[in-house]
Description:
Elements: H1 2-13, E1 19-26, E2 29-40, E3 46-47, E4 54-55, H2 60-74, H3 84-87, H4 101-105, H5 127-137, H6 152-166, H7 170-182, E5 188-189, E6 211-212, E7 217-218, H8 226-230, E8 240-242, H9 244-258, H10 267-273, E9 307-312, E10 316-321, E11 326-332, H11 344-358
Antiparallel strand pairs: 1-2, 1-11, 2-3, 4-8, 5-8, 6-7, 9-10, 10-11
Helix pairs in contact: 1-11, 2-6, 2-7
Amino acid sequence: MRRVEEAIKEGIVAGAFPGLALVVAREAETLYHYHTGFAQLLPEPKEITPDTIFDLASLTKPVATATAIMLLVQAGKLSLSDKVQYYLAGFDGNGKEEVTIRHLLAHSSGLPAWKPYYKEIDPSLEGKSFISNKVLQEELVYAPGQKAIYSDLGFILLGMIIEKVAQQSLDSFCRQNIFQPLGLYQTFFINLQNKDNQKFLSLTNVAATEACPWRDRIVVGEVHDENAYVMGGVAGHAGLFSTAQDLCRFAQTMLNCYQGKGNLISQEIAEIFFQRQADIPCSTWALGWDTPSPHGSSTGRYFTPRSIGHLGFTGTSIWIDLEQEIIVVLLTNRIHPQRSKEQIKIYRPLLHNLVMEEL
């Protein structure tokens, strides 16, 4: 992997990211684990280690939220065709009565991509309730199922549905039913409203993210996403933290389930969730997961169409080639200390290409 390591070091020098953790696995065997650079530059440098914990940002969507929905479908507690309105009172009008759980998972609900709700909140209001109500009241911007617009708002609703059906918090459900059974002991939400979780704020092995102008501090040990932060750190669209090794273990479980060899999700459900939704025009989305775009995918050139993956705004990604049985987990803190850096868009496909060429 010499060329891979050279490209990573080049990316650090170019300022694409302060540091990086990379894990590559094939056919259930971890072949390569590499880490280099810095978990934090300011206020003082801190190096990345094998157990550095990263803010996963939108990897929360497939790893926590979509997997939780898979478990609830498997248990017969909900169906993909169920109307969102059935679970969430107040989600009505403007065609919203036609929106299903499948639409939310496939980013085809008609909801807009994102809204800066965190800027609107009154300090006297409870953040989670405020944002939940704002999403429920949001107008659709297109008819459900007509196209796909990647939407944080849809996954906020999915997090709410999970809590309603499971009768427990999203972080508690995921811990008990996903993370603990799989041995993912470094994978968790940091619930900022739970005093027992305040200990995470002092963890020394968490990679820093942005020098946030809104919070007026460098964000470390708390979720970077502002809406998730206002919601208390636990949301369907963001809030999860993990290590590269834990994510590789999770990805291998998903691959095993797809092959009918897993004990978390049935093969039938895995196949449904990992299939691109062909009925949605020009969409690459499966259910909670993305698939490689035929034009300029972050996977590079060598992942087959039968691959699933996802990106996170903080500079994280996970890709699983279901056909070649290859897993690549690539975690960076590219928004530290500023989110304006965009070179990750160059280095991510480059690194995937180099890894696949070496394999």
